[in-house]
Amino acid sequence: MSAYIVTVSITIGIYVILAISLNIITGYAGQISLGHAAFFGIGAYASGMLATRVGAPFFVCLPFAVVVTGIVGAILGIPCLRVREDFLAITTMGINFVVQAVFLYVPFFGGALGISNIPVPSIHGSDMTKPEYLIMVLLFILLSILVDGWLTRSWTGLALSAIREDETAAEMSGVNLTRFKVIAFVLGSAMAGLAGSLYAHFMSFISATDFGFAESIVILSMVVFGGIGTLRGPIIGAIVLGVAPELFRPILNYRTLLYGVMLVVLMRFQPQGLLGIDSFVTRTLKRLWKKETRGYEPAA
Amino acid sequence: MNPLLEIDAVSKHFEGLKALDRVSFSLGKGEILGLIGPNGAGKTTLFNLITGTFPPTEGTIRYNGKDLTGLGPSRIAAMGIGRTFQIVRPFKGLTVLENVLVALGASRYPRFLAAARRFRADDSVSEAKALLSRVGLLKISDVKAENLPLGMKKRLEIARALALHPELILLDEPAGGLRAEEMEELVSLVASLNREGMTVLVIEHNMPVVMELCERIVVLDHGIKIAEGSPEEIRAHPQVIEAYLGREEDA
Question: Which domains does chain B have, with CATH numbers?
Fold first, then answer.
């Protein structure tokens, strides 16, 4: 495999984790977030700074980043508990700008210079190669999928869907809104922190500009494009929207523009996303599948 | 015998508007009480106070002798007060079965480890199905709630309320908007629940339904309790007649 493909795959893999994590907050719990890149950034900074300032090894930095981002997610989630829908969208957007500004203007976080020379993780005393790094990213994707699968099958996941569908009815059915919204924010943020750590140690240099509002929109586009509220949706969305700019190099500069147009078109014609529940593609695939398996059955 | 629910001099003011003004009544175990009154009388406000949507401005509400003030809606629901809504609120995107399962989880949600377990376990699914068969929705347990007609949505809300293992259910206009036969089904469902020992507090505009179901009726008008008594007493009560005739005059 060429180094180029490995590099692109790692980047897309990190986006897959980000999309899965945002889907927990926005897809399952129904809490719109326009600031997910903030948590991506917090994870990246936590991991990168622990590695460069303290000299901690990667396998300490990564769980540290997950825990820190989860805690910050809980704290920043609190103002989000009192607002709904469009106000929540604005609040999370604001959080993104504030977090980015803190990284940019507080000297402790390296200011405009960001954090550089973040070491590559080492295994058995030697630096990890890129293919090895890709395998590690894939393992973490698998872990994220397992966490997601556990969540959707658990009472916690059911409580989140109840909140998404109707907050008042959920409360009256015994679901504590505060508790479960915080759980969704913590899980989603912690997973974004994981992606941030993987990003920091892969890029070796990070700065505040990597984690802006536009990045949040890119992540949200992936979730919405693939099909919000499902597991397959964010994964496929991250892969397709991650690969597309690589295949069609000339569009790279217009990436955010195209994502924006795509979001508008999808919202108008296919709000459940490409592979969402009951989307055009899903229905067609189901129909084809049924035809194949039941081909010889007499029509009912 | 101690009453199950005691409403004790409860007031609710919304910035000067007295939605409820020192309303008191109590509800004994196994009783079925009708709450009637013209639009804007404060009936739904009282339901919202009982279920903890907002606290009373004054007065206390006790359930099984316990003061409910300051407890959130989820706590109160888990204590065993189920409710349905005037404008139905099923979880639209979830299936009929999942709707009931959500409320069955009420005892599990406060504990992290219990909430981490699988919700489609055999015991919970069979219990949810038993409740659905109780309200006659078992056959469509895998249909999404948004696709049900109104009468079924209302019965689904009752099943969801029953999943809390309640001692008391609050029904907000259960017959509202229903066709005659749907209404009959619903009335007989509520009556049979009550016969099995369920305490019911019901808001209803349809007088024949109220008269058929309820042993006792409380009448609210502009936030004040104007009458309480048996259906016969209420029918003959001058203030009640005035309150309702006044409303017809407005219309």
Answer: 3-91+161-250 (3.40.50.300)
